[in-house]
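So, can you check what follows?
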Amino acid sequence: MLETLFLLLPVAALSGWWFGRRNKPRRQAGTSHELPSSYLKGLNYLLNEQQDKAIDLFIQLLDVDKDTVETHLALGSLFRRRGEVDRAIRIHQNLIARPTLSKEQRAQALFELGQDYMRAGLLDRAETLLGELIDNEPHTVAALQHLLDIYQQEKDWDKAIQVAQRLESRTGQNQRHLIAQYYCEKAEYTYRHGEPSKALKLLKRALAEDYNCARASIMEGDIEKSAGNYKAAIRAYHRVEQQEPDYLPEIIKPLTDCYRALGKLDDVVTFLRQNLAKHNGISIMLALAELIRQEKGDEEAADFISDYLKRKPSVRGMDRLIELNLQHVKDAVKDKLQVLKEVTTQLIADKPIYTCSQCGFAGRTLYWQCPSCKLWNTVKPIQGVEGE
């Protein structure tokens, strides 16, 4: 890529010089057509590996006219992709300052400069430029998408909602799942600042946009539980099973706490058994095993776990089974089981819990927006022997 750039620059500069010579009125026959000394100086910089000086000189040589606008745009884009944003900005600013640009060429230069500013982290400048283009075809959709990215980075969820709605209207593509997440972000902020009632209203807006937004139900359950409204919390948590069963592990403990507070542990046992039959999941099984242990003892719980592991092997399940048996074996066997326990514990400690279905990001924290690919609602509990 680097070599291509240095081949392209002198060619582009020479082309600009040649077009300029071609378009000037002919003078007398003896007029010289020799290359400009600046061009030869630029080549000398390249040969002496003074690349920065060469690039700056060739950019200066490349006059802006109707024949070289596309070359300028290509060079600016190339610099941006290489991470040399300052040079890309300079090229595109130079273009915009030219009064000879057509309306379409100026719009394209503005769009490129907006992308430069985004890459440089100058989001306020990018927002201003892209805002000029949302009514300017063919840049409308791309400008709206970039603005959406900006407002997400700035956590300006009200503007993000407005842009997402406009993007949906313009493209016909459903943005309600995104808008629901933005309302959840607003609700989270509001709740942290001591306004639970307002947060609950925002979560209702989220569910109105996307009824399958499990995040909204989980947050609603957490808020109601904190307020001691256990029945309301249970209703919210129960919705998760219909919305996105992958997130059931997130609600097992708070749901169990709510049922315990109401003195209805039998109901949570029923809920867990029903969902274990439908969805499997090691978190559901372990929660159920713990309730069995509390009611009937270690042996009953160990048998329950053992039966499950025969059908669906799991490192977490094996770890818990060893733990239960350690308390009831003789010293000789206990030492061997302790070694196995250390192995399973280490395996669990070193493994991520969640992964993004789109980019493969993995970690031990649930993010509603993937930190890597920035997509929403793609990070979920890992499945399989080392996961759920």
